[in-house]
Specification:
305 residues, alpha/beta, Arc Repressor Mutant, subunit A, D-Maltodextrin-Binding Protein, domain 2, 3 domains, two-stranded antiparallel sheet, 12 helices, elongated, LysR_HTH_N
Length: 305
């Protein structure tokens, strides 16, 4: 059976699906590593090939037409089938079950990886996943040493010697015990005051520590830690005793905040304490097959979170 005339290439269908997922042609172009004019030219060529107008182009941006949304709906299963085909062929070449080695920081491993792997298994149930959990610095080193095919970290900056993709932002929150003086104060805490306060810190190499340290360093030399603790669970327990305030991901602190064993402290600049989740990989080996799909699942999940 031959393909019907006018059948489009998979790459341009993937680009159109990215426009639908990200909401703009510019964002889709960035995802695919091409310029916006190049992306626009490829979509225009697809429109000519299909004899359909897929995008409404205006001064404020581009939006999918009804026909464009219909084409995207038809393209998604085609692209998933192509990814499955690529993985299956790779497995045949390797002569073994496909294996994906993932390294993830503790926050991401506990609060994001299970959901991402479930979605991956729905598409590729044959892939055997091995997960290594460490802090962000250790994850980067695992990727560099080729001990992981893809890594997931959090922190303020991308590693300069690795490829990376931002997945989404993670909110950090200052927490104290209900008996701590900050739990009853009416005035928000300034970043300068937070920097001058001994806090409960994660160990060196933690993405949380790096992100908080960078923000607070802009408002004075951070005070000596009240304690340096190797896990978020230990920090939560110590903060609940009123030992000292702590700065943690809201993902981690949420259960204790809901139970009332910890209280969130408002800041004068509530947006300052955020960090980014990133996928990372070796520059010479960008994600392919299940690794690429896992990164795409992670990005889609975070964009709708």
């Amino acid at each position: 059976m031959t393909l019907p005339p006018g059948t489009p290439d998979l790459d341009v269908l993937d680009l159109l699906v990215s426009v639908a997922e990200l909401g703009s042609l510019g964002a889709a172009a960035r995802r695919h590593g091409i310029s916006q004019p190049a992306a626009s030219m490829r979509i225009s060529a697809l429109e000519r090939r299909l004899h359909l107008r897929l995008l409404d182009r205006g001064p404020t941006g581009s939006a999918l037409t009804d026909a464009g949304r219909a084409v995207v709906d038809h393209a998604r299963p085609v692209l998933e089938a192509a990814r499955s085909f690529g993985v299956a062929v790779s497995a045949l070449r390797a002569g073994s079950v496909p294996r994906l080695r993932v390294a993830a920081s503790k926050t991401i491993a506990d609060h994001r990886i299970p959901q991402w792997l479930q979605a991956l298994r729905g598409v590729h149930p044959e892939v055997a996943v091995a997960l290594e959990v460490a802090n962000s610095s250790q994850v980067l080193e695992l990727v560099r040493r080729e001990a992981a095919d893809i890594g997931f970290v959090e922190g303020p900056h991308p590693p300069t010697d690795l490829g990376s993709r931002v997945l989404g932002a993670d909110e950090l929150v200052v927490v104290v015990a209900p008996t701590h003086p900050w739990a009853r104060r009416r005035r928000p805490v300034s970043l300068r005051e937070l920097a001058a306060t001994p806090l409960l810190w994660r160990e060196p190499g933690s993405g949380t520590r790096d992100a908080v340290w960078e923000v607070l360093s802009g408002h004075g030399e951070p005070a000596r830690p009240a304690a340096e603790l190797g896990s978020a669970a230990t920090i939560l327990a110590a903060a609940a005793t009123a030992l000292a305030p702590a700065v943690l991901s809201r993902l981690i602190a949420a259960p204790e905040l809901e139970r009332g064993s910890l209280v969130a402290v408002p800041l004068t600049d509530a947006t300052a304490l955020t960090r980014q989740f990133r996928a990372v990989w070796r520059l010479r080996f960008p994600p392919a097959g299940p690794a690429k799909l896992l990164a795409e699942i992670a990005e889609r999940t975070e964009s709708f979170d």
